[in-house]
Description:
- By secondary structure, the chain is α+β, with helices and mostly antiparallel strands.
- It has one domain (5-75): BolA-like (GMP Synthetase, Chain A, domain 3, 2-Layer Sandwich).
- The protein contains two helices and three strands, in the order H-E-E-H-E.
- It has helices spanning 5-15, 47-57; strands spanning 20-25, 32-39, 68-75.
- A three-stranded mixed beta sheet has the order 1-2-3, with helices on one face.
- Strand 2, helix 2 and strand 3 (68-75) form a beta-alpha-beta unit.
- It is globular and about 35 Å long.
- The model has no long low-confidence stretch (mean pLDDT 92).
- Belongs to the BolA/IbaG family.
Amino acid sequence: xxxxxxxxxxxxxxxxxxxxxRIDDLRGDGDHYAAHVTSxxxxxxxxxxxxxxxxxxxxxxxxxxLHALALQTAAKD
Length: 77
């Protein structure tokens, strides 16, 4: 069962309330997304640590409900 882009955005915003989130459905199949996430929670973190925060926000859905997610993260100024 595929995940809805709105649900992905909601999960990320629950974990990172100040996040600016944009979700793009890359193939139109509800299975392959790109997420662009900017949050002050990312300040001082490596790119890997930033991505880990986003993956934690998805509560174990990666590889199951959510097949593929390309991440771009950045710290807010």
